[in-house]
Amino acid sequence: MKSSPRCYKCGGSPHPKRECPANNAKCHSCGKNGHYQRVCGQSKLLIRVVFLHSKS
Ligand SMILES: [Zn+2]
Ligand SMILES: [Zn+2]
């Protein structure tokens, strides 16, 4: 079972990074540029960061 590839920045069908419509978009969830709110938090890296912070 392999999941269908998606753009991790906009959540749409895969495309070159420079063609991603989310490049100039600002996330309303975390406030950072370069991705949409709907894909925010889906990154394993972000999950890892949250985990480290919650460890305290
Ligand atoms: Zn994209
Ligand atoms: Zn975000």
TrEMBL record:
Entry GO MF terms: nucleic acid binding; zinc ion binding
Keyword Zinc-finger: yes
Species of the source: Amphiprion ocellaris (Clown anemonefish)
Tagged with keyword Metal-binding: yes
SMART domains: ZnF_C2HC
Keywords, ordered alphabetically: Metal-binding, Zinc, Zinc-finger
Residue span, CCHC-type domain: 6-21, 26-40
PROSITE patterns: ZF_CCHC
InterPro entries from the UniProt entry: Znf_CCHC (IPR001878), Znf_CCHC_sf (IPR036875)
The protein's name: CCHC-type domain-containing protein
Domain of life: Eukaryota
